[in-house]
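Weekly puzzle thread! Below is a chain. First person to post its structure in C-alpha coordinate form gets bragging rights.
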Amino acid sequence: MEKKLYVGNLPYSATENSLNELFSQYGEVVSAKVITDNDSGRSKGFAFVEMSTTDEAKKAIEQLDNTELEGRNIRVSEAKPKTDSRSGGNNRRW
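Winning reply:
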Protein backbone atom coordinates (compact mmCIF):
# COMPACT_ATOMS: atom_id res chain seq x y z
CA MET A 1 0.00 0.00 0.00
CA GLU A 2 1.37 3.42 -0.94
CA LYS A 3 2.31 5.82 1.85
CA LYS A 4 2.53 9.61 1.61
CA LEU A 5 5.25 11.47 3.50
CA TYR A 6 5.53 15.11 4.49
CA VAL A 7 8.97 16.67 3.95
CA GLY A 8 9.46 20.00 5.70
CA ASN A 9 12.19 22.61 6.15
CA LEU A 10 13.35 22.02 2.58
CA PRO A 11 15.91 24.30 1.00
CA TYR A 12 14.15 26.47 -1.58
CA SER A 13 16.42 25.02 -4.27
CA ALA A 14 15.03 21.47 -3.78
CA THR A 15 13.23 20.07 -6.82
CA GLU A 16 10.95 17.14 -7.42
CA ASN A 17 13.82 15.42 -9.25
CA SER A 18 16.23 15.90 -6.34
CA LEU A 19 13.64 14.55 -3.88
CA ASN A 20 12.95 11.59 -6.15
CA GLU A 21 16.68 10.83 -6.25
CA LEU A 22 17.09 11.20 -2.47
CA PHE A 23 14.09 9.07 -1.47
CA SER A 24 14.65 6.38 -4.12
CA GLN A 25 17.61 5.17 -2.02
CA TYR A 26 15.00 3.72 0.36
CA GLY A 27 12.48 2.31 -2.10
CA GLU A 28 10.28 3.11 -5.06
CA VAL A 29 9.09 6.69 -5.23
CA VAL A 30 5.58 6.88 -6.68
CA SER A 31 5.52 10.69 -6.74
CA ALA A 32 7.31 13.75 -5.38
CA LYS A 33 5.63 17.15 -5.28
CA VAL A 34 7.29 20.37 -4.08
CA ILE A 35 4.57 22.78 -2.94
CA THR A 36 4.94 26.19 -4.55
CA ASP A 37 3.39 29.62 -4.12
CA ASN A 38 0.66 30.20 -6.72
CA ASP A 39 1.74 33.77 -7.46
CA SER A 40 5.53 33.56 -7.45
CA GLY A 41 6.05 29.89 -8.32
CA ARG A 42 8.67 29.76 -5.55
CA SER A 43 8.88 26.75 -3.25
CA LYS A 44 7.11 27.11 0.09
CA GLY A 45 9.79 24.95 1.73
CA PHE A 46 7.87 21.70 1.96
CA ALA A 47 6.87 18.77 -0.20
CA PHE A 48 5.04 15.47 -0.28
CA VAL A 49 6.71 12.23 -1.36
CA GLU A 50 4.72 9.07 -1.94
CA MET A 51 6.54 5.76 -1.44
CA SER A 52 5.24 2.48 -2.88
CA THR A 53 5.04 0.61 0.45
CA THR A 54 4.63 1.40 4.13
CA ASP A 55 7.94 -0.36 4.92
CA GLU A 56 9.83 1.80 2.41
CA ALA A 57 8.18 4.91 3.86
CA LYS A 58 9.22 3.92 7.41
CA LYS A 59 12.78 3.31 6.24
CA ALA A 60 12.90 6.73 4.54
CA ILE A 61 11.59 8.43 7.69
CA GLU A 62 14.16 6.66 9.89
CA GLN A 63 17.05 7.49 7.58
CA LEU A 64 16.16 11.01 6.46
CA ASP A 65 14.32 12.76 9.31
CA ASN A 66 16.47 15.52 10.80
CA THR A 67 19.28 15.02 8.27
CA GLU A 68 20.99 17.84 6.42
CA LEU A 69 20.05 18.71 2.86
CA GLU A 70 21.83 21.71 1.34
CA GLY A 71 22.48 23.24 4.76
CA ARG A 72 19.02 22.66 6.25
CA ASN A 73 17.85 19.88 8.56
CA ILE A 74 14.82 18.43 6.82
CA ARG A 75 11.84 16.96 8.65
CA VAL A 76 10.32 13.76 7.28
CA SER A 77 7.14 12.28 8.72
CA GLU A 78 3.94 10.55 7.75
CA ALA A 79 1.63 12.98 5.97
CA LYS A 80 -1.55 13.76 7.85
CA PRO A 81 -4.91 13.53 6.07
CA LYS A 82 -6.11 16.76 4.53
CA THR A 83 -8.79 18.54 6.59
CA ASP A 84 -11.62 20.72 5.41
CA SER A 85 -10.17 24.21 5.97
CA ARG A 86 -13.51 25.89 5.29
CA SER A 87 -14.85 24.66 8.60
CA GLY A 88 -11.86 25.93 10.58
CA GLY A 89 -10.94 22.44 11.74
CA ASN A 90 -14.32 21.53 13.18
CA ASN A 91 -17.45 20.19 11.62
CA ARG A 92 -20.02 22.42 13.30
CA ARG A 93 -22.68 23.97 11.14
CA TRP A 94 -23.58 27.61 11.67
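Puzzle host: Confirmed. Bonus trivia for everyone else. Residues 3-80 form a domain with the Alpha-Beta Plaits fold (CATH 3.30.70.330).
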